[in-house]
Design brief:
Layout: H1 16-24, H2 31-41, E1 47-48, H3 50-59, H4 66-78, E2 83-88, E3 91-95, E4 101-106, E5 111-116, E6 140-143
């Protein structure tokens, strides 16, 4: 009888991809970070608020406070795993898509939609202060029902 080799890839473990993602950016894989990373990154790219992620965590029986969700989202953003999109003074969304792109913000539905970077053209930018460089340009096009 042939012997089956053990699975070598951590991607085949339930938290394997989340664990690898955290280790890649040098974040300690705490239980709460792993659980939130799994919720955020398993599946398609999306835009999420801290409140939405907190609700998903509670439904998944992950015991975590809203403050911890906020802190973790900001840690993930600082580590380069997420992009924070500030749509107004009341709300920030966190984007799991780190590629260069822009956004449509539907003011009625309070939803973000991606715009490919090539669909927005900027002819010029203002002069930058001495010693500064552009790190990224974020365009948010706000839309509403006519």
């Amino acid at each position: 009888m042939a012997r089956i080799a053990p699975l070598a890839s951590s991607n085949l473990r339930p938290y394997g991809p989340a664990l690898e993602r955290l280790r890649t950016v040098g974040l300690r894989p705490t239980r709460q970070r792993l659980a939130l990373a799994k919720l955020l990154f398993d599946g398609a790219d999306r835009h999420i608020t801290a409140e939405i992620l907190h609700g998903e965590a509670l439904r998944a029986r992950v015991r975590v406070s809203l403050a911890t969700v906020y802190n973790t989202l900001h840690q993930f953003t600082d580590a380069g795993l997420l992009r924070e999109i500030v749509v107004d003074s009341e709300r920030s969304y966190f984007d799991t898509n780190n590629s260069n792109h822009h956004h449509l913000f539907d003011e009625g539905a309070r939803r973000l939609h991606d715009i490919p970077e090539t669909d927005v053209r900027l002819d010029s930018l203002p002069p930058l202060p001495e010693g500064m460089e552009v790190s990224r340009v974020d365009v948010i096009v706000r839309i509403r029902k006519a």
